[in-house]
Design goal:
Helix content is 29%, strand content 17%. It has 499 residues and is an alpha/beta fold. Strands 1, 2, 3, 4, 5, 6, 17 and 18 form an 8-stranded mixed sheet that branches. Strand 14 and strand 15 form a beta hairpin. It is globular, with a radius of gyration of 23 Å. It binds NADP nicotinamide-adenine-dinucleotide phosphate.
């Protein structure tokens, strides 16, 4: 990054706020700032278009597994959703429409990946650099990096030798025709259960490699008729009611996930019944039966995944892969499979989502080093030693039971109030006190012990390398809302602008 010296302690930044990303987080932040009449911000987006995860993930069958009335901004209901669970293209279009309506596109710099953000203590400014070599300064940074934006590639011997086509689900190559091809697909998570039913009828042979069977329950999806959409258009209160109904219905699940996992048994029975009904072959059913409690990993919803596995051209492998060769792979039992293509449905870097060498706080400390003992933040948003830096969907803001957009909007409120506080108090920066962050996380982790994620008997990406659940919010989402309604400046070290 080009070095811009910020000698002047009262230097004026290029922007009051730099926002990273244009997913629900980054775009939401830009819109909320615009709603307040502000235009002193810039948004940096590494892709050529906006939408974050909903821009990047285009694999066949990609859709939301949270009802759209809730998986959208509270201030921007969309009466035009075509289904209860919208497909990816519709969500991307929704976000584009939001950007246009609030006129934020002109603030977005596309194809501009932020590669470094470095805090300069004397001036209290962040120096932010892009991969294109551009550098700007900002008083505050709001990082909407996305919890699921860095694909995880499996470290299987020989994978680089494979001469056929290989791609990750998030980087789907639509130019490659899978018709009639011999394909291996690795992973059976939320993405795979959506694309497997789409590609299974096209390919000659699909070898699906499963490490852990997911719990799957029926997807209560349905088209929203034109008549219903017209009602939502005419009576916005009706859509608000639908949203609130879904919110409180889903919120009930917290009793099972967090407070008493036994309450999830009825949902587990639903999963068992679906498997029973859709898979007749006892051997295949046994392979698909999880050995851990439902809820321990993300609960998946699908009506067409199991039926796809009944097809004669689909083979479910529960053994591992020993190595890849130029023309295929060898399983851990020594069987050789000739392949044309490999699809990696192997998920994302989540607990290690922030790369090393990107965010440097006070004293030049890399955030990855600050998190060596475990990923943590205060209210999932601010981090001691990283003043005026707000991490969207940060530590322990994940939710499996409801819409992440709800959590994002809570964070947006908190950040906005923080930005207002900074300006009103004429502060150079605010830095959450380390002991405040520690106490917050001690309380949070104490609530984890009885949750299904900790007691359900599975290994999941919810946990970081130190074995701490650094991703999930152990409570009702309205509790997070209550905690983030106002910025609590007293918990922060406050450094004034020099006179
Ligand atoms: P994922 O849920 O993390 O699933 C990854 C899959 O790959 C798992 O089955 C995992 O097995 C397997 N895997 C990973 N590394 C492997 C390796 N080295 N060898 C063999 N198998 C390996 O990833 P995802 O399916 O991409 O979904 C990620 C998250 O994205 C979801 O949990 C969800 O939050 C979100 N998502 C949401 C939607 C939506 O509709 N809103 C849609 C798609 C994704 P193990 O289980 O054994 O680890």
């Amino acid at each position: 990054m080009a070095d811009i010296a910020i000698a002047d302690a009262n230097a004026t930044p290029d922007f009051a706020v730099v926002i990273i990303g244009t997913g629900f987080s980054g775009l939401g932040m830009a819109i909320r700032l615009k709603q307040q009449g502000r235009s002193d911000f810039a948004v940096f987006e590494r892709e050529a278009g906006l939408g974050g995860a909903w821009y990047a993930n285009t694999y066949p069958g990609c859709a939301c597994d949270v009802p759209s009335h809730l998986y959208s901004f509270s201030f921007e209901p969309n009466p035009a959703w075509s289904r209860l669970f919208s497909p990816q293209a519709e969500i991307k279009t929704y976000l584009e429409r939001c950007a246009d309506k609030y006129d934020v596109r002109k603030h977005i710099r596309f194809n501009s990946e932020i590669v470094e953000a470095r805090f300069d203590e004397p001036s209290g400014l962040w120096r932010v650099g892009t991969a294109n070599g551009e550098t700007v300064t900002a008083r505050s940074v709001v990082a909407g990096l996305g919890p699921l934006s860095r694909p995880a590639f499996p470290d299987i011997p020989g994978i680089a030798q494979f001469k056929g086509k290989i791609f990750h689900s998030q980087q789907w190559d639509h130019g490659y025709d899978l018709s009639g091809k011999r394909v291996a697909s690795i992973g059976t998570g939320a993405s795979a259960i959506q694309f497997v039913p789409e590609i299974a009828p096209k390919v000659a042979q699909l070898h699906l490699f499963q490490r852990t069977p997911p719990w799957i329950v029926p997807k209560p999806d349905k088209p929203i008729s034109e008549k219903e959409r017209a009602q939502f258009r005419r009576h916005p209160g009706l859509q608000r009611f639908a949203r609130n109904f879904i919110y409180w219905f889903l919120e009930l699940r917290v009793f099972g996930f967090v407070l008493n996992p036994k309450l999830l048994m009825s949902m587990q029975r639903q999963g068992e019944r679906l498997l029973q009904k859709q898979i007749q072959d006892p051997a295949l059913r046994a392979k698909l039966t999880p050995s851990y409690a439902l809820g321990c990993k993300r609960v998946l919803i699908s009506n067409n995944y199991y039926p796809a596995l009944n097809r004669s051209n689909v083979t479910l492998h529960t053994i591992g892969i020993r190595e890849f060769t130029a023309n295929g792979l060898t399983t851990s039992e020594g069987h050789e499979l000739a392949l044309d293509a490999v699809i990696l449905g192997t998920g994302f870097h989540v607990t290690d989502g922030v790369p090393k060498g990107m965010i440097f706080g006070r004293g030049g400390r890399d955030l990855v080093d600050a998190w060596a003992e475990g990923t943590e933040a205060y209210k999932g948003t601010t981090i001691a030693g990283y003043p005026n830096f707000y991490l969207m969907t940060g530590a322990n803001t994940g939710v499996g039971h409801t819409s992440l957009v709800f959590m994002i909007e809570c964070q947006l409120n908190y950040v906005l109030d923080g930005l207002k506080t900074l300006a009103a108090k004429k502060l150079k920066f605010m830095d959450v006190r380390p002991q405040v962050q520690r106490a917050f996380n001690q309380r949070l982790q104490a609530r984890m012990s009885g949750t299904i994620w900790n007691t359900g008997g599975c290994k999941s990406w919810y946990f970081d390398k130190n074995g701490k659940n650094a991703t999930q919010w152990p409570g009702f989402s309205w509790q997070f809302h209550r905690q983030t309604r106002r910025f609590d400046a007293a918990q922060y070290e406050q450094v004034p602008l020099s006179k």
